[in-house]
Amino acid sequence: MLSNLQQQPADALLALIKLHNADPRADKIDLGVGVYRTGQGDTPVFAAIKAAERKLVEEQDSKAYLGPEGDMAFVEALMPYVFGKDTADMGGRIEGMQTPGGTGSLRVALAMAKRAGIERIIVGVPSWPNHAQICADLGLAVVEFNHATTGGRTDMEALGTALGRAGERDAILLHGCCHNPTGIDYSHAEWDEIAHLVAEAKVLPILDLAYQGLGNGMEEDAYGVRRVLVAVPEALVSYSCDKNFGLYRDRVGALYVMAAVPEDLPRMMSNGHMLARANWSQPPDHGAAAVREVLADEALTAQWLDELDQMRERMRQVRAKLAAAGTAGAVDLTPLGGQNGLFSIVPLSKDQVLEMREKHGIYMAGSGRINVAGLTMGNIDKFIAAVADVTG
Ligand code: LMR
Question: Does 366 lie in the same domain as 281?
Answer without folding.
Answer: no
